[in-house]
Amino acid sequence: MSPDMLFNLLLKALGQTLQMVAVAGLIGALIGLPIGVFLATSGKGELFPAPVTNRIIGAVVNAARSTPFIILVVAIIPFTRFITGTSIGTYAAIVPLTVATIPFVARLAEAAIREVDKGLIEAARAMGATPLQIVFKVLLAEAKPGLTLALTLTLVSLVGYSAMVGAVGGGGLGDLGIRYGYQRFMPDVMLAVVVVLIVLVQAIQSTGDALARRFDKRNRKT
User: Fold this and answer.
1) Domains identified in the chain, total number
2) Which residue windows are transmembrane per the record (predicted)?
3) Residue 222 belongs to some domain of the structure
4) What angle do CA 9, 14, 18 make, to 5 degrees?
């Protein structure tokens, strides 16, 4: 394969991967973050006490997280077809990626929020803050570095998942590596795909780490 052809294939596949990661990450975060906030604040004696609902949602989240991604992709094919009209291609791959992202974000967000000092919550309560004010002005504000790292980890995981959906015709870098690098015995294509994936993950991780440091109040005091 000529360098120009390889470059064009990599560019197209990279664009598809970025599209899958961005859309699935955005939708997954918009849905998963509120679920994570609820899980972190709805236990017995917490801001929005609803222990039964908390346990039910927690069980659903755990079940979704424990399902291997490749099995999830196959299991929700009817749902994917209902949403996109097809079960292959970039747009179809976004559906299982998003479904897998929601519980992942929820648990990471819950963990980040639970790291917030309980004393800050009690102080806000003592000053008359409402539960919603505590969530937005205390919990989310203080957990911003942890949430940033959680979303960074989510995007990095999505890059790996997006490569995995290439095995079922999902498009992107994984699909390119399988169709050309594996099925057509082109090791140069496989190597190029791996290098691009490594660079992409490194860029996402470095950006996320930098943002987390910027949001961390302890760093700004030093």
Assistant:
1) 1
2) 20-40, 52-76, 88-109, 147-169, 189-212
3) no
4) 155
